[in-house]
Amino acid sequence: MDPAGNNYDPATNTMTVGTVDGCLASPQANSSTHTHTAQLVIQNVEDLIGWQARLNYNGDEMRPTNIDFDPFLDTTTGQEVSFDNLPKDNATGKHREIVAGSSLPPGGPYPQTALIGAAYVRTQDFAISPDTPPKNPPDDPSYGAPNGGVLASVDFEVEGDQTGRTLSMQVDDGIPNPPGSAITVFMDEGLILSDYFSEGELASGFHAEGAAACSPMPLPTNPPGSARNADVAVTGLEMAAPESVEAGKYSDLHITATIQNRGPDEVEVSYGGEMRYGKDCTGPLQSGDGSEPVPADTEIRKEVSVSFACAGSADGARSVGIRAIVTAHGPYGTQDPNPFDNGRTAQVTVTVIGTAPLPTPTSPVPTPAPYGVADLQIMGASVSAPASAPAGQGFDVMVNMDIRNEGPDTTPLVVSSTVLVVAEGECVRLDYYPNVVELGDIGAQSERHYTTGAKLACTGGSDGSSAATIDISLGASGWAEDPNPQNNSWNGQVAVNILGTAPLPTLAPIDGTPIDPSQVPDSTPSNPGVGGSSSSGTPEGGVSPAVAQANIRTPAAAVLSAAAFPQTGQPAGESGPNWMLLAVAGVVLGLTAATAIAVRRLISRRA
To answer: Total structural domains in the chain?
Structure first.
């Protein structure tokens, strides 16, 4: 329908969505290049943090040219608004800022692909993560979205004279252009779930130029054999550690994960673990990543030992928690009927005896060995930071990146990051995030998620308000020969408004500092003892993360923006029921999640 049916009322902070239609028909043709504005609408979702949409199209027919990620104005606060930041923060009475990204290639006479996405910033919780329709009772009464919400406005440029033709805009999965369309939602216990969608869950939109209706138009589909149906699940997670450890010395923690493929198809299952340590403890951030073919109705057990060390306390005894998150998923294109059991978490508590500080880190550099050929690529990355920060106080810049090894061989993975700040006055880095990290082996056709960042502080400008521009450069490399090194780097930028003028803080260690995994020496496994053990684990968030193809090891600062994606590629995908709708005057671009998914989420949370 006409986008005028989508409205926002600042007085009540309510967003409404009108009826949508999959076809925009223009009986009177416009033979010149012209633009139609669409609105991306989401329906039937709970606790949204961020979203991304993969668009495939022909670059010389109809292509996206501009994205407005907050198309409405809240006149009561003076802020721009979309559904993603519709709730108001209870502490401030204002909407959250949005961080957005897009990869829109210049037009050309060939098939093209684009990725757009956005997320609200700062701490996530249920109240600030919008629902439509509202829960009963609602998490937060500060907003209303009874039948959907507008995520963005998108300008589509129709190239030249397309009279008599029906043009398409396909919302796609990750085949052949990863990553695919997805959302990120907030889950129980402060965890995050990223849902990637398969080809069968996606719908597309059409535009008829000089016709009363859109003509039937088949769209490309995924190659035979690329689509798989498999219910992958992490069914058990056990952690064992000594009941007590000596301060300043490394001890061993043993982790065992049980993963099932309940079928019906055999798939290549990728799995991995992410570690979280208590204050003044260090250890590898990720461990046990790998992938292997798993037949239907088959269970595998993966075991790994990690070495950790903790500083002592003045009184000679303190308790710390160590948490493991294990996830498993099939490759892009896998249809997983139960995406909420793809991850599991467990935690142990150990007593640190003594007063010694953390051990001095060492950085042994292994001798490279021949590792064949491995085509590494940064599939996407994002950078997030607060919109503003007080002068003289630290603020966090978080960076997330997804790396894939297309193979054919396994290689050790090395990730590098560079942070450059341009600002009026002085800025200083307060953290100890490593600039170069060895993340262990990454198998062929496997993916890895990595998080890094920087804690910065700036003095501010002379007028009390100035911008600090932070440039981030990322790189991924291995020891194997890479046939396509051009896709191994990424650059992004974010601006933070520095409020006031203040001196720089005194440098001090930051609690919970991530430590370079290569700085943790190998150690001989020890008897874990009887204390500090945890069996079976807990599904992440009470309902586990992610549809099959999603790498969901995403930290709380997740932002679904992206860059460094392929600029061309054959579209793929097939129409399905509408879940995410890109609509204007009848144009609908659908990204669907079956009603059963929403029902499962309600049952699992409220049972």
So the answer is: 3
